[in-house]
Amino acid sequence: MGKIPKFKNEEEEALYWDKESIVDHLDEFEPVEIEVRSPLVHNLSIRLDGEDMSRLRELGKRRGIGTTTIARMLLRQALENPDAVLPVDLDKLAQLIAAKLAARAGAPVTHATARAVAEGESQVYEAAEPQPAFRPGRKAMT
Known about the structure:
Elements: H1 10-19, H2 50-63, H3 67-80, H4 82-85, H5 90-105, H6 111-118
């Protein structure tokens, strides 16, 4: 058969392939290498507010793909280049971490410790027992 023609649009191409068999054109194709990824077997459940969920659905709809697919694509993009996608104010993050850790431990946490956790340089483990706070005018409990 003849060569595959150039098409003006998808409709023209669809009409062509309705009449032609791809088998008659196998010599015109070139082999390609593809990467087959392992199947998706892990699930991740996240909570989103209504606005974020609506924006995610709309983004997927505009691209003609489902909500979970667009979420997975955005996550993969963020994992490949986290600094470009997720600029973080480490001082604000450290303040949030300090507040959370202090609430858990029942004792203050220094900004330096929280900042180290925010930067991923340190891990903070909860104390087995909260330490008693020292109050002026009272003896420390021993």
